[in-house]
């Protein structure tokens, strides 16, 4: 079974921000990159290879077209996959990463961060105290939001606390300020909603 | 799991590849052929019988030691998409910084060359060669005029480069925030804290015997020392590198140290090694390099002036001059963020066929470089063995102390570890020193770059280097530096200037290394 590169079109990254406020403070911590495949022929994806540049967690969603009649649905392949064990330090910041969709016996490369079959993993609800590092990361996000709000000087209600649970749970972290034009080289990639 | 199996097979393949080119491989082959004569080797069970023979005769152990050595030195195979630079140093900005630093060094070397109109290399006339050969064992008596030479760089120049290292993706702003580092190093590398260090250096704990503490005159030797020496002799008899490395974490008895270090570094003096050294010596006799003068100057300035090491001056020349010409050192640049300087034959600038590495081993000595060799002279008196030990120590440890990399044992991580430990566990002291303009790293940097050689008493230094070998890491240097500051904290709190702080920490020769480390790691109330 030979493996070939699948031609794909990687769009520029888009930052997810709350509201329309554009300010240099409070950089967004979540970026989305769309990847589309121009070829119409169906293929079986085996491996994704990319070079990381300061992304801490990665989620991958795929929109699958099953047939002409049913609408395409989004499937989560990977959720919050950790690329940087400590996002505030350099570990894993510029590493080359390979993700395998399936465990293939023909694979001979070592040390890959492989992940099993795509399946919708239900969100884990932790009981008891929340994880302190997650809380501190969310506090940072909140701080960033408050900075943005303060800078915008608007008296209108933002509805800050009306953010959906799903968004908060996904809590993607990028350390410090990631520039949206940062060098995130992907051959195939992640789509987040 | 399938993944781990394929990881393992690649590592095995890589090690086999490396060892196939080595001396050990041909020796094993010869032994296998010779063993066919033996009565216990039968044709039906040839493979098993030969394996059994290797086990009994000790050759399997030698192979094990060689494999262990490869695993300790060479990094694991990386992603196939990763270019070779990635193995040298994964972070792009650090590679760039190292590249510009190297350019500066070369510029300095070249300008010295043109100023003094001395060629980088020249062939010695026959008369001069004869003279040098006669004087080989007493090169220290030579007093060449070195006044015009100056060291290419000193540790403090290197420190300035490290202070200016910045990660372009890391914004900490101009104002003080929770993200600015209060120390001099501003890159966010991951360093261990004391709980992690305690786990890592568990054999230095309070309830475990240590040489350097439990062998003092007040402690009866039956409690620890005698047993420890006995175990050491057993380890040496077994000739097992891994066991020796584990054993030496508690220190090495003086009588066994030379053999233990040779076992851990997997150095055995074969006739081929002696021959190789003699060949290097011939190269020294035949050609004169500019770096030779730099080495002379360095030895004269540092080791010759040191009370403990001046007697070894001649050995230092014999080792360092040969080291500059040893092209086998070039192989370590595969995992060193530095690259050997390239020079072109006169008139052929830019043509790759006429490119040579200068010096042949790719390492330009800096001020204090000879101090890496000096302590080893206490252990080894035979020049070729001394040379091999030094070379192995260099390609395992010392190169990390003067190149910019993100490796946990690299000098940048050591500096950050030192500053973080001091800031976390002695915040008052750190703040006070910072306020008076005496950033602690400015004082401790020179200790770490030289691995404390020339600052500690020699027996203490050798106990420290025992642990470097035992843990295969240089992090202990940063811990010791912090421990020294902790020890002299009371005096340091009273000083009011950088000069006074340096005076407090000028003399470390009375310090006992192991109690300091033990107290700092295991007995300090945080």
Automatic annotation (TrEMBL), chain B:
Q: Which residues form the Rab-GAP TBC domain?
A: 251-472
Q: What is this protein called?
A: TBC1D19 isoform 2
Pfam families this protein is in?
Answer: RabGAP-TBC (PF00566)
What species is given as this protein's source? Pan troglodytes
Gene3D superfamilies to which the protein is assigned, alphabetical: Ypt/Rab-GAP domain of gyp1p, domain 3
